[in-house]
Write a structure and sequence with these properties.
Elements lengths: L2 H16 L10 H25 L19
Length: about 70
């Protein structure tokens, strides 16, 4: 799940939780909204963790590699 999908889930969950006042038989819309909010937040946190570990926020360019060769 990417950052965009996570933000979309958070927005949809917030709308269902706080902006919709409809009632549906057999379905609690506010509960669905809270579930979407939680899934979106967890997805956003995981995306940020994996993105930073794969080199998303390295602060100014590519990482340098140093190779040491032992000569006999």
């Amino acid at each position: 799940m990417g950052v965009g999908v996570s933000i979309l889930l958070i927005a949809a969950g917030a709308i269902l939780t706080w902006a919709v006042n409809a009632t549906v038989s057999g379905l609690e819309i506010q509960t669905v909204g809270v579930i979407l909010l939680i899934v979106g937040i967890v997805g956003l946190v995981l995306s940020m963790v994996f993105w930073s570990s794969w080199g998303g926020f390295q602060g100014g360019g590519a990482r340098r590699r140093t190779t040491y060769v032992d000569e006999p």
